[in-house]
Every structure is written in C-alpha cells, then in structure tokens.
Design a protein that fits this description.
single chain, 6 strands, five-stranded mixed beta barrel, about 140 residues, disordered C terminus, about 50% strand, alpha+beta
C-alpha cells in the first residue's frame, strides 16, 4: 500500500453500520417521554434440515427492537405503522450493555431507524365492510 493510497478521500470517510430489514411490525409504535418512538419488527429465515430418509424445513423468527429519534420520522411512524404491517426499513445498529435486576451483565442490539417504507396498509374494520366483492365471471 502506498502512502498516496492512505491519504485518499475514501480513507477519510467514516465507516457506517447499516442494516436493512423486511419484516412484520410486532406491536403498535409507542412514544417514550416525547423523545423517541419504539416498536418491534419480526423477520424469519428458513432452511432445510436433512434427515436419514427425508427432511423438513425449519423456521426461525427473530425480533428486532426499533428506535426512532428524528421528529419527522416519528410522526410518520406514529400515524402510519401498525401491528402486523409489512415494512422495509433501513437503520444503523446500536449496541448497549446493562445489568439486569439480578446483577447479570447483558447486552442488546437496537436498530436506529433512518428510513421506512410501509409495504401494506392493514384495513380498518369499516373499510373491510365497505369492500364489495366482484360477481363471478361467467364465460
């Protein structure tokens, strides 16, 4: 590596933690002390488990804690996001350590929300009642 390479523009840029999730909202967002909004998102992964003569698919669900600090994004999340909704989100990982009530050292990971796209909008009961089914098509 040459010294010219070490002084390049790219080496002076900060490195960032970036996470993208596609999942379902696990709880309605809640506002905490007018400073942030918190909600959870579930994602899952599946894989094939091979056994002697056959096999099966296994499924694992992971829960992610999401925090929203930006005011404009907080308003959008509080007005738009609901439990069960499919969302695509970007954020950065944040790790913290704490002691639980028994004095055991624990750690947790949180995603600080930067962008969110709501991919579906659950219908309210009233909207669901207003939907008229199409009559069957007879050829």
């Amino acid at each position: 590596i040459t010294s010219r390479f070490l002084r390049s523009e790219e080496t002076r840029r900060p490195l960032r933690s970036k996470t993208t999730l596609l999942g379902n909202v696990g709880q309605d967002p809640i506002k905490i002390r007018d400073k942030l909004v918190k909600f959870s998102v579930a994602t899952n992964s599946s894989w094939f488990v091979k056994e002697e003569d056959s096999g099966h698919f296994a499924l694992k669900t992971e829960w992610h804690n999401i925090l929203v600090y930006r005011n404009g994004l907080q308003n959008y999340v509080m007005q738009t996001v609901t439990k069960g909704q499919r969302v695509l989100l970007d954020g950065r990982l944040s790790y913290s350590k704490f002691e639980d009530s028994e004095g055991i050292s624990r750690s947790s990971a949180t995603i600080i929300l930067e962008n969110l796209i709501a991919l579906n909008f659950p219908k309210t009961e009233r909207e669901a009642e207003d939907v008229v089914e199409d009559e069957p098509y007879d050829a």
